Amino acid sequence: MGVLEPAASKRTGKIKNNRSSDSVMEIIMYVIAVLFLIILIYPLYFIVIASFSDPSAVAGGKVWLFPRGFTLDGYQELLRHKNIWIGYRNTILYTVVGTAIGLVVNISAAYALSRKDLAGRKILSLFFIFTMFFNGGLIPTFLTIRDFHMYDTFLVMVLPFSVGVYNIIVARTFFQTSLPGDLWEAAQIDGCGNLRYFLQIVLPLSKAIIAVLGLWIAVGYWNSYFNALIYLKNPNMYPLQLILRNILITNQMQSGMGSGEAAQIALRLANMMRYSVIIIATVPIMCVYPFVQKYFNQGVMIGAVKE
Amino acid sequence: MKSGQSSPAAAIGQIKRNWGLYLLLLPAVVLTLLFAYKPMYGVLIAFKNYSPALGIDGSPWAGFKYFDKFFNSYQFSNTIKNTLIISVYSLITFPIPIILALMVNQMRPNRFRRFFQTVSYMPHFISTVVMVGLMMILLSPSTGLVGNLYSLFGGEAPDLMGSTSLFSSVYVWSDVWQHVGWDSIIFIAALSSVDPSLYEAATVDGASRWNKVRYIDIPMLMPTAITLLILRVGGLLGVGFEKVYLMQNDLNITSSEILSTYVYKIGLLSSQYSFSSAINLFNTVINFILLIMVNQLSKKLSENSLW
């Protein structure tokens, strides 16, 4: 990021009054910043320590800064639930295949649209952009998927919704602003066709945008549950998020029922699992995130550039 | 070779020369036609008595029957009211990412600032399912963090997830918590492109830091802010399905039933395809009109517009 140092490095304000008001402002600002950080981090931290704690200590409000009654029961309980691992596998498959398809479809369309000598460029852009603001809606889309015999198939999870108009716009802006205009002219003189130029020259120069879109699409697939909820019936094809929904949200109401020792133990384990399951579902993204953070930021900024 | 040639012969020549580009566009165009435009044709079932056996074209016309049915139902005012409350409430929180960006921009570019930014973007990558799961755990009056906090001070915690009056607050503020950092990136980017000489001139004139924020930073953010605001207003009746649906339970349903969840329930859970499509279409059309109106208004007032 092109970081500026406004005011901060220039502490040569001529009027004394201003300088003292500046430092008051600075102090207030950092106090707010630290409070803000606590509000952001603490809930997440709490889940982590609660996942290693005795559930009765958690329920009794004894867990604040460190795990109490350290235990790994919650994680052990996870191992017994086969559907979580099936979901994990499915999510990885959908994410990998879906991201690959999404990249091919969106990057190549974006490059074509970025070329000023593409006849019909305006109409083609409108063709895509219109779908951002108007769509058939849930049922007509559902019926379409069913007509194509894609209901409850692997394909429905990776193909139909892979065109991301916003992604195309971002990538198009990238190609327009970062590829030197005379490069294509030069390649053309050397007898290079559009496809060869795209594959051998454009793509190697566009690693940044490929990384950005790849990550956006991958996070989208990893986190989504809507399409699975609508278009999948077979539990063996459920992605992780749908299984998480059943564990974290739908079953919540039932966990208060039952009595007796066995029910108590089951309840205890179910409670513990809620914490550990959040951890294992979120850790993959959180682990990758710090390394790819700068690409995410870049992507948002490319998207912010107006033509 | 240059664009802007208008004779048909030249256009055809251009198309022939650039066939490779059309090939690159093909996958995205085909997918958009099949999965975005075909469902748009399917919207016709909103005006028909759709029966799966007869298909879209074969089903008899019903005119505006299903629209009337919706306008006269109890859920009409209820879902619209709930949808509007949530979206207007969200709209009010619109300045928060801007304030955050102004603050980050005032920080010296050091480790703290980097840490602050990394942490503030992180919750954005939590999936909706996990987010709602987190809220259920943390906001539970008996065992959650909020419950513990209340009992620490000897109070009775409200049941935030089961409250009708607090539903919109819980929805909106949890959204702020999750996305405020991410939403600020675009404004931070806009601020980093401010010409440093403006700050220097202001310093020479004896401006305090606050005045620089007030008279340089905030005006610089206006174009970006207005563009984003237009999009938000355009989506006023388009509150997303995913989070609200997960947050719904028997206790809060009177204030948590919004248009998109109602469309889902009527359409897929009770298979009233035509009725559901009619509600959906009504929603889409209102959004579309709103977007165009706000865009026109903004064009008049500030010369900022989407197109």
TrEMBL record, chain A:
<feature type="transmembrane region" description="Helical">
    <location>
        <begin position="275"/>
        <end position="292"/>
    </location>
</feature>
<feature type="domain" description="ABC transmembrane type-1">
    <location>
        <begin position="88"/>
        <end position="278"/>
    </location>
</feature>
<dbReference type="Pfam" id="PF00528">
    <property type="entry name" value="BPD_transp_1"/>
</dbReference>
<feature type="transmembrane region" description="Helical">
    <location>
        <begin position="27"/>
        <end position="52"/>
    </location>
</feature>
<keyword id="KW-0813">Transport</keyword>
<keyword id="KW-0812">Transmembrane</keyword>
<protein>
    <submittedName>
        <fullName>ABC transporter permease subunit</fullName>
    </submittedName>
</protein>
<feature type="transmembrane region" description="Helical">
    <location>
        <begin position="123"/>
        <end position="143"/>
    </location>
</feature>
<feature type="transmembrane region" description="Helical">
    <location>
        <begin position="92"/>
        <end position="111"/>
    </location>
</feature>
<keyword id="KW-1003">Cell membrane</keyword>
<feature type="transmembrane region" description="Helical">
    <location>
        <begin position="155"/>
        <end position="175"/>
    </location>
</feature>
<keyword id="KW-0472">Membrane</keyword>
<dbReference type="InterPro" id="IPR000515">
    <property type="entry name" value="MetI-like"/>
</dbReference>
<feature type="transmembrane region" description="Helical">
    <location>
        <begin position="208"/>
        <end position="232"/>
    </location>
</feature>
<keyword id="KW-1133">Transmembrane helix</keyword>
<comment type="similarity">
    <text>Belongs to the binding-protein-dependent transport system permease family.</text>
</comment>
<dbReference type="InterPro" id="IPR035906">
    <property type="entry name" value="MetI-like_sf"/>
</dbReference>
Automatic annotation (TrEMBL), chain B:
<protein>
    <submittedName>
        <fullName>ABC transporter permease subunit</fullName>
    </submittedName>
</protein>
<feature type="transmembrane region" description="Helical">
    <location>
        <begin position="125"/>
        <end position="153"/>
    </location>
</feature>
<keyword id="KW-0472">Membrane</keyword>
<feature type="transmembrane region" description="Helical">
    <location>
        <begin position="273"/>
        <end position="294"/>
    </location>
</feature>
<keyword id="KW-1133">Transmembrane helix</keyword>
<feature type="transmembrane region" description="Helical">
    <location>
        <begin position="20"/>
        <end position="37"/>
    </location>
</feature>
<keyword id="KW-1003">Cell membrane</keyword>
<comment type="similarity">
    <text>Belongs to the binding-protein-dependent transport system permease family.</text>
</comment>
<keyword id="KW-0812">Transmembrane</keyword>
<feature type="transmembrane region" description="Helical">
    <location>
        <begin position="220"/>
        <end position="241"/>
    </location>
</feature>
<feature type="domain" description="ABC transmembrane type-1">
    <location>
        <begin position="79"/>
        <end position="294"/>
    </location>
</feature>
<dbReference type="Pfam" id="PF00528">
    <property type="entry name" value="BPD_transp_1"/>
</dbReference>
<dbReference type="InterPro" id="IPR000515">
    <property type="entry name" value="MetI-like"/>
</dbReference>
<dbReference type="InterPro" id="IPR035906">
    <property type="entry name" value="MetI-like_sf"/>
</dbReference>
<keyword id="KW-0813">Transport</keyword>
<feature type="transmembrane region" description="Helical">
    <location>
        <begin position="84"/>
        <end position="104"/>
    </location>
</feature>
<dbReference type="InterPro" id="IPR050809">
    <property type="entry name" value="UgpAE/MalFG_permease"/>
</dbReference>
